[in-house]
Amino acid sequence: MLSFFVENIGTILTGIVLLGVVALIVRKIVRDRRKNVGCGCGCSGCDGARDGQKE
Asked: Got the DSSP string for the chain?
């Protein structure tokens, strides 16, 4: 079992780093949604526009 980890340490560490990056991206998206931040386009006529957004 230990030899598996030793042989694949690079892949395991890369996976952990990628998982952390994805978690940070999801966290940012969730926080932006809670703060009522839109998609950034500023189009009041689009389907993704939220109440209170200005052009």
From this structure: -HHHHHHTHHHHHHHHHHHHHHHHHHHHHHHHHHTT---SS--TTSTT--TT---
Q: What's this model's pTM, rounded to 2 decimal places?
A: 0.61
Tell me how far CA of residue 27 lies from CA of 20, 22, 32, in angstroms: 10, 9, 9
> Chain-centre distance of CA 14, in angstroms?
17
pLDDT digits (tens, 9 = 90+) for 13-28: 999 999 999 999 999 9
First to last CA, the chain: 58
Contact 25, 15 (CB under 8 A): no
